[in-house]
Amino acid sequence: MELHESELILQCKNGNVEAFEQLVLKYQRQIYTVAYRFMGNHEDASDLAQEAFIRAYKSIDRFRGESSLKTWLYHIVSNVCRDELRKRKKGQSLSLDAPVSTEEGEISRQTEDWTYAPEHIYESKETQYYIQEALNKLTPDYKEVLILREIEGLSYEEIANYLGLSLGTIKSRLNRARKAMRDILITQRELFVEDYRLKQVKGG
Amino acid sequence: MDCHEVSELLSAYIDGELDPVESRKITSHLSVCVHCRQELSELQQTIQFLHELPDLTPPTDFCLRVMNKIKAEPKKRPWYAFKAKQWFSLGAVAAALLLFVVSANVISPLNNLPMVTETKTDMAAESLLKSEERKPETESLQILADKEPSDQKDEQLEGTEQSQTNEEKVINDPTAATDLKELEIRSSLEQKNKLSSPKNQLLDTNMASEADMIESKSQDSNGTNTISGLPHDYNSNGDKNLKNRGTNYRDRKESQVAVTQDEEEVSTAFDYNISLCSEDSEQASEEICQLVYSLGGNVLSDSSDLLEIAVPTERLDVAFAALKDQGNAKVRQVSSQDVNQTIKYLQQLQESLQLKIKGLERKMAGELSEEEMAELEAKLNRYYSDLKMTQMRLKFIANGNAIVKIFFEQR
Known about the structure:
By secondary structure, chain A is an all-alpha fold.
């Protein structure tokens, strides 16, 4: 498989479009997923993941195999999404709290309604929805560091290099990002195992 | 350390990114502070939620659309793009500059062809732009890639350091356990101390003598230490180890160069099978899950009679001590394997699952009855969950966690 992939990359470098198609098929789920985690909707995720693959194709010559292809692709899609998010932050983007127009007039989105559906909360689809909604609410910086760490699985050092920040900054940013995420999720008490019954671990 | 300081470091604690001294301080703070334990548990669950997010399926025409765009693309720039590959980007920039100079200064004054000059400068400018635009991205990539190997080296050094101190401890330490069950846990702990924390082992010294060591430990027993006393032992040994660090490290480095040059990459993955006899296995299971989260580990699977957890090897002793609180715990089996082999095996498993998934997806794209479709979908979901599980294991093992399977037995 490894050899197979490096062979495909080589063929891409020689301009073989079909070889690239194989790689797209192999990684499209993962790349699309990262884009979705960043953007929070399928339309943007699809556009930006496509953009990422096209950029990857154009710069495949620069890929020299020092990291895995997956890491490299993750890197590109993160860049694409980050740029897009920054761009949008300046402009106006649809807010979760913006009212929705219906025939009966405007209603608010009321994401807090989640709390009233505890019976669904353990269904994984619902949970996933809440998690993504929580991600959507984070600032781009927090969202980014969480995705790099938890979804892409990068090490602290890799994140520091990628973002051009110090290890210390990454440590504290990740800590704050996780807490921000926790604070949003905690409004859904049912998600968390409550009643911390654990006795003291040992000796006192 | 007060709660505020601990709170600042919890996230790094979970990821094992603290130095051993800090990490130990936090572990001991957690053992007395419910508030921080709660916070750690919540953070751990938050992380777990993110880890559990599944990979999503892109729209069916996703690949097609990418490929259409790509196929439409290259015609635009073959003449310089492909040359630039061979020439190196400097060449491309130089060529573009030359073109620019030529078109601006030479062609346009001599020839009366504004159309031609315009397109040429455009192209030159475009290629200039392109090469500039692509640079930052690849440069940062480069940094990322370059850093990887040195990471491993650091880790390795740290690991080997510990391996030396642990070795020494096993030889000097005359403590032991009494009754047989406790002895069993203790043995596994000793073994853990001896084998697990070092990321890179000397195969000849440690691995081969694994069984001997455990046996000699048991014979040394003086009957005073019980399992609950273990973490304390561990800590005091840890302090001793710290003092010895500098010299051990040097010795270790030399001996490694001399003896095991081709075994540098070896490290060990652990698998514990433990049977736990407790009055209320459900409650025990829940408490163990909490504990695991608070230790920065993770729950891999959770069913009525089997709980599978990943625990950072450096905090395994705490986990075992707590297991003992939950009932009668016995280590049934400990297996250790070269991490690289385990990872290789899991990667193969992952690939075969991915192939199966691909095959199924292809099948599902064809014409099928609703029943067949439902059947295949169920199968697909099963594969996906297996795949997820495999990937999780891969990640935890690669991050230095031991996998512990706890089999619940009725009293």
